[in-house]
Amino acid sequence: MEVVIGGTQLRLLQGDITRERVDTIVNSANSGLMGGGGVDGAIHRAGGPAILEACKRIVRERGRLPAGQAVITTGGLLPARHVVHTVGPVWHGGRSGEADTLSSAYRESLSVAVREGLRTVAFPSISTGAYGYPLDLAARVALREVQSFLEGGEGGTPLEEVRFVLFDRRTYEAYADALSAVAEGKGLAGLGPPPKP
Ligand code: APR
């Protein structure tokens, strides 16, 4: 499923983000940047020790990464050149600023990519695994924030493509539903029926 927003292609895919050949993938990390389970574990396993070494250097120099912020490292052995590590919110019921923190994680990740002159970015579904953010709510926050970022710059951004690489069908369908809702709200061009991935 794909749409064009501000001259940037926004695509939803079902798959394993560690296989994406893009300028950068985004990792849903924790503040310590020491790796973990889920997509964090998959990225460190596939990317090799260079990623963890770069993360350790960042934490030594700048301290732990606050939720909603983002930093960039090498992609190590991954097909992606870089990894942007961000920390999403842990879900505590929705009254502790979780939506704002989740929006910030997407926005800061895209800002880092643009600042580094990157053109293609792939996101996982941030916070909807171990951090427990309800999938349908997180998908709408994610897509609204990415749409806002891509429409924000005068004449769009330099980004060519933003992908969401969703690990399972349930997550893919939630993002497809959210993208339809966001697109209908703004009349975004090019929104075809969600093809079966
Ligand atoms: N490719 C794409 N998506 C993946 C992959 C993968 N290889 N592996 C897991 N996912 C998906 C999960 O299915 C979920 O939809 O990533 C989404 C986020 O789930 P988590 O990885 O559990 O991340 P999150 O909920 O943000 O929790 C982050 O978990 O692993 C720890 O160190 C991490 O403390 C941090 C916390």
Describe this protein's structure.
By secondary structure, the chain is α/β, with parallel strands linked by helices. It has one domain: Leucine Aminopeptidase, subunit E, domain 1 (3-Layer(aba) Sandwich), CATH 3.40.220. The chain has helices spanning 38-47, 49-62, 98-115, 135-152, 169-186, and strands at residues 2-5, 8-14, 24-29, 70-74, 82-87, 120-123, 161-166. Strands 1-2-7-6-3-5-4 form a 7-stranded mixed sheet, with helices on both faces. It is globular and about 45 Å long. The termini are close together. The structure holds adenosine-5-diphosphoribose. Adenosine-5-diphosphoribose binds at residues 16-18, 28-30, 36-42, 88, 124-131, 165, 167-168, 171.
